[in-house]
Design brief:
44% of the residues lie in helices and 17% in strands. The chain is α/β, with parallel strands linked by helices. A 5-stranded parallel β-sheet has the order 3-2-1-4-5, sandwiched between helices. It binds nicotinamide-adenine-dinucleotide (NAD).
């Protein structure tokens, strides 16, 4: 099983990656994260040397990069944790929230449709889920 986990250098995504690699040691996990202020690569240090783990520094909003990764990795599943997640910051700079949380989510769902990915998990806030429904 190949799983692309986006936003895996953040709080929930990193713990999901640790859990999955421990529980399913034969799964391959590919983390796609552009490392905003909220992402920290050192968080993933415990799994960096795991042969079943790959880190890719790209944004979910970069359609070309996302499609390229899907073509390289042929994921069975995608789990999206990548987001601007701090509500207070959205008041000062709403644009990056719209770009990442809405456009980025749409790019990932387009990629899933294009490459026939059967399972896509959106970890998000209800506002994003409603817009993308
Ligand atoms: N932490 C909570 O208590 C909580 C509660 C409810 C919902 N959520 C939702 O769960 C999801 C994950 O939350 P979290 O607390 O782990 O967030 P976080 O802020 O800790 O991590 C977000 C990660 O996404 C990455 N990222 C941001 N923009 C990106 C982009 N364009 N491309 C690729 N990577 C990008 C960041 O670098 C970071 O590693 C979010 O959608 C959040 O709204 C979190």
């Amino acid at each position: 099983m190949n799983i692309i986990v986006t936003g895996g250098a953040g709080f929930i995504g990193s713990n999901f990656i640790f859990h999955m690699l421990k529980k399913y040691p034969d799964y391959r996990i590919i983390c796609l994260d552009c490392l905003t202020y909220a992402g920290n690569l050192s968080t993933l240090a415990p799994v960096m040397d795991n042969p079943n783990f790959r880190f890719v520094k790209e944004s979910i909003t970069d359609r070309e990069a996302v499609y390229k990764l899907f073509e390289e990795e042929h994921p069975d599943m995608v789990v999206n944790f990548a987001a601007e997640s701090h509500v207070d910051r959205s008041i000062e700079n709403p644009e990056v929230f719209l770009t990442t949380n809405i456009i980025g989510t749409a790019v990932l769902m387009d990629a899933c449709r294009k490459y026939g990915i059967k399972r896509y998990h959106q970890v998000s806030t209800d506002e994003v889920t409603e817009i993308c429904r």
